[in-house]
Specification:
Blueprint lengths: L7 H8 L5 E6 L5 H8 L3 E8 L2 H13 L6 E5 L14 E7 L1 H10 L9 E6 L4 H9 L2 E11 L2 E10 L6 H6 L1 H6 L2 H22 L5 H21 L2
Parallel strand pairs: 1-2, 1-4, 2-3, 4-5
Antiparallel strand pairs: 5-7, 6-7
Protein name: tRNA (Adenine(22)-N(1))-methyltransferase TrmK
GO molecular function, one term: tRNA (adenine(22)-N1)-methyltransferase activity
Organism: Paenisporosarcina quisquiliarum
Length: about 230
């Protein structure tokens, strides 16, 4: 993977960036995504934010190597603190983290999203946390995608400003993904269900404290949801 040829996962993330956008890529690593977006004339400008010193230096080096210093600003900053008001960022991408971490990044500096009208988020796990954040903060899902790459399953959630309502099933599985129900979706939730059943079996022989009972009921509810949606 490089700035000219992204992984399938990041290529799909890039596909949801609208032409003419000003993008902030949070946790940008080597800045491959913003470089690609500018090279492809999708983004007019971009900010690459990185909180770790090594990846920050890698991003700076990459932007210089691609001769994109006039179009991409690399900032050493924590989360959305990489965004300044004068950037006029309208699109934020965050990829390759857990859903709860992405939600906490958005929550921590939510005032920095004032000019932003699109969030493109790619959680590695627990996408539900992002849907919960969206419900609480008046963002709505406009697209979702699930894909498998190198034996790992990823989800992509695209949010725009607005209100939505989600059923418990939609919150867990994703409203768009539930409609599509492709093979990767089925594979993910069959695997999750198998793990939940293993946990339930372990709980069955454990001392049933209040916390364990709550965990048991939560897992049973999720198993019921998945069974109803997959029909198995």
């Amino acid at each position: 993977m490089n700035a000219q040829r992204l992984s399938e996962r990041l290529t799909r993330v890039a596909s949801y960036v609208e032409k003419g956008s000003i993008v902030a890529d949070i946790g940008s690593d080597h800045a491959y995504l913003p470089c690609y977006l500018v090279h492809q004339q999708i983004a007019d400008k971009a900010v690459a934010g990185e909180v770790a010193k090594g990846p920050y230096e890698s991003a700076r080096k990459q932007v210089r190597a691609e001769q994109l210093q006039d179009y991409i600003t690399v900032r050493f900053a924590n989360g959305l603190q990489a965004i300044e008001s004068e950037d006029h960022v309208d699109t934020v991408t965050i990829a390759g983290m857990g859903g709860p971490l992405i939600a906490s990044i958005l929550d921590q500096d939510i005032d920095r999203l004032k000019t932003v009208n699109r969030l493109i988020l790619q959680p590695n796990i627990h996408a539900k946390a992002i849907r919960e954040w969206a419900l609480l903060n008046d963002w709505k899902l406009v697209a979702e995608e699930i894909l498998q790459e190198d034996d790992k399953i990823y989800e992509i959630l695209v949010l725009e400003r607005g209100k939505m309502t989600l059923s418990p099933a939609e919150l867990l599985l994703g409203p768009f993904l539930m409609v599509d129900r492709n093979d990767v979706f089925r594979k993910k939730w069959q695997k999750e269900s198998a793990e939940w059943k293993r946990i339930l079996e372990a709980i069955r022989v454990a001392e049933l404290s209040k916390e364990v009972q709550m965990k048991k009921e939560e897992i049973e509810e999720k198993l019921t949801i998945v069974k109803e949606v997959l029909g198995a």
